[in-house]
Design a protein that fits this description.
This protein is an alpha+beta fold. Helices cover 26% and strands 37% of the residues. It has helices at residues 2-27, 104-107, 207-237; strands at 30-32, 38-46, 52-60, 71-77, 83-85, 91-92, 94-98, 118-125, 132-138, 153-161, 167-177, 180-190, 199-201. It has a 7-stranded antiparallel sheet with strand order 7-8-9-4-11-12-13, with no helix packed on it. It has a 6-stranded antiparallel sheet with strand order 1-2-3-10-5-6. Residues 8-26 and 194-216 have low confidence and may be disordered.
């Protein structure tokens, strides 16, 4: 009986770890930040250039205008040793780009309602939030995500040069509006090892923090189920 209980406990704990890992990975691919702007990580791909990868992200506006105004900019935190490249694969500090509308997530008619807009892309320290990385700022008010229904999404693709390699792991991401900025965590190009940080800059909501709270609650609930599950499995194996 004890042997069966121990075996059942191991199986139950393994299931908890698996479920927790899947939930945590899913949350790190999408995060709700300042004024309900949602940032989604859509993946990366290698290019024909050595140590250069292309990364894709989406930013979706809230269903109604925030009280502080629309999206001022958003910034993805990356390693300081990385370099930004323009579409011609030149290392640059800044360039202009147009959001993407031809990827499957835009054309399937389900995932995103993608809109075209012009942005200024720059690389360095975001002085208003303290995040170092790739900053995307609308060129004109007409290019802003201001919050409306149906909700629009801007999809961004950019090139990163990482001379010493990289890892796909959690890093800082921030959305800045007139109400402030909220820094959360999302998958992206990082140097190993990397640290996950979460901080608020005058944010009016704490939804990024809420995501982590939900993870902890989920983990605690699943761990509480281990005992009961182990007992049931052990009884059936006896």
């Amino acid at each position: 009986m004890y042997r069966n209980f121990r075996r059942a406990s191991i199986i139950a704990i393994a299931l908890v770890v698996l479920i927790f890992g899947v939930a945590f990975a899913a949350i790190l691919e999408q995060v709700t930040l300042q004024d309900d702007y949602v940032v989604s990580y859509l993946g990366f791909e290698n290019t024909s250039h050595t140590n250069v990868t292309k990364w894709t992200y989406a930013v979706t506006e809230p269903p109604s205008p925030p009280t502080g105004g629309g999206l001022s900019h958003w910034t993805l935190g990356v390693c300081t040793s990385f370099k930004l490249k323009d579409p011609q694969f030149n290392i640059v500090d800044a360039y202009e780009t147009t959001t993407v509308t031809d990827i499957p997530e835009c054309t399937d008619g389900v995932t995103f309602n993608c809109a075209e807009a012009d942005y200024q892309v720059s690389f360095g320290n975001d002085g208003s939030t303290g995040v170092y990385g790739v900053k995307f700022e609308p060129k004109t008010p007409d290019d802003q995500l201001v919050g409306q229904t149906p909700q629009r999404t801007h999809v961004f693709q950019f090139l990163i040069f990482h001379p010493d390699g990289f890892q796909e792991s959690p890093g800082d991401v921030v959305v800045k509006t007139g109400n402030g900025g909220l820094v959360g965590a999302i998958k992206g190009p990082q140097c190993p090892p990397t640290a996950v940080s979460l901080a608020s800059f005058g944010a009016s909501n704490g939804q990024s923090s809420l995501h982590y709270g939900l993870i902890l609650i989920l983990a605690a609930g699943l761990l509480l189920l281990v005992g009961g599950s182990s007992y049931i499995i052990a009884r059936r194996m006896a």
